[in-house]
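Notes from hallway chat w/ T.B., transcribed later so I don't forget. T.B. wanted the structure written out for a chain they're using in a teaching module, and asked if we could keep both sequence and structure tokens in one place. Agreed to drop them here.
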Amino acid sequence: MSKLNKDILFLIFEELHDDSRSLFSCLIANRLWCETVIPILWKNPWCYNINYSNKNYLFLIIVSYLSDDIKGFLTSRGIQIPSFSNQSLLFDYLSFCRSINVNTIGIITSIGSSSTYNQFLLQQEFYGLFMRKFPELKYLDMKSIKHQIFYFPGARFRFESLCELKCDTTIDSSYFYGLAHLCQYIQRLIIINIELNDDYHGIAELIGVQKNLNYFEWKDDDSLYFPILDPYKKVLFALENKANTIIHLKISFVFIDCTLQKVLPKFHKLKTLIAAFDNFSDEQLEKCVHRDLEIFKIDYFNLNAASIIIGNSGGRLKKILLGPYDLEDDYVERFGEDSLILTRKIHESCPLIECLSLVLSPSKEHYIELEKLLKICQNLKLLLLVIVDHTYFEELTREITLRYGGELLKILSSTSTNIKEIRFCGDLEFSLEALEEFLEKWEGHALSILMSNYVYKRDDYKKLINRYKKNGIIKNFRCEPYMDIVNMDF
């Protein structure tokens, strides 16, 4: 490694841009490594999983860029400005920076003063400094922003290069009007909706001026209630005009009305679709044809909608995810048939599937379709199986759940697959004997298994699991909370 030149090291360290622990450790290896890593760390120094309220050195570095007059003014306000030696900084840190995270800036400025007004003044100086020192601005997370930073000197030039914007709906429309005037090449727009609005006009204006928007995400806060009809109309119509550029669409609406049903079929180029399909008729669903779709996520109670959309996809789906299940009385009657049709539709239409979550009834018919799926879908790497016996309205006995688990393991053992990780939830349990028989037939694999049942932390199960860890059949075996198990990114 000592013979690698700086360009090669930079390419290697760039691959670690999300791994702050490794990057920080590289700082102390030698001078060359330090000089190579600093620009990567400072490209977005607000994104790491650290406690910024304790990072006095980060506050110190930013304050050191302020002029003596500004430092004097801030000190006169009672803001704690550290004293500085005449020694210059080793690097021009802010010249590497291309991002702003408003929330993190707020945390850092609290180091200087506990006064809300003083923090506002300090943030004002920081943002003015960033507009002067940053070579460009690529990423902006402006949730909870209080400063109209696009009016700062130099802001026009910086904002012209903005690629990614995260915001929430507490922001006044004037902010979005200001951004729309400066930013026309945003590629990723992420909006957290935490405040009721009847038109979201400013957001619609910002969407309307974009020339290369390819990723759009909207997430409603679960506590929102909409007394008005179709509150998203302006936003959805603005998105409709970008249907030829948007390839990743993630929409989590609390309230679904007719506009989404009209607009969604226009997005023919989608590679990612995450949405709910409440109140869509089968006729409306048949119009949702997305031949390039690779990632698809839908709620468990929209299984019929999932089958129709998957059937109309172009056979390129690699990831199919279902939201957490919680069967309601009015859905129980349809669940068995809908889940059976979905499993069948996947093995008929998704030969390239790599990551899959399934909610199944433990019936013979469902298990037959699962076995077909495992034999056909040979690219499958990660599989989540949620077993739900919707025919029982009283508590299931352990004898029944053990039978369900044993039958499922036999199916998994009988199919030759490339699965690397299996997750199990729901109405099933594995006996020691069934689990051992399954693991014996999995020889040659390094399998990760995640369970939502903590019975597998018993000593007898631990002994069995550790034996198969030693011979390499089990790579990882963990018991985790249900919500972590069904989160396929966990």
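Follow-up for T.B.: The CA atoms of residues 41 and 143 lie 22 Å apart. Might be a good example for the class.
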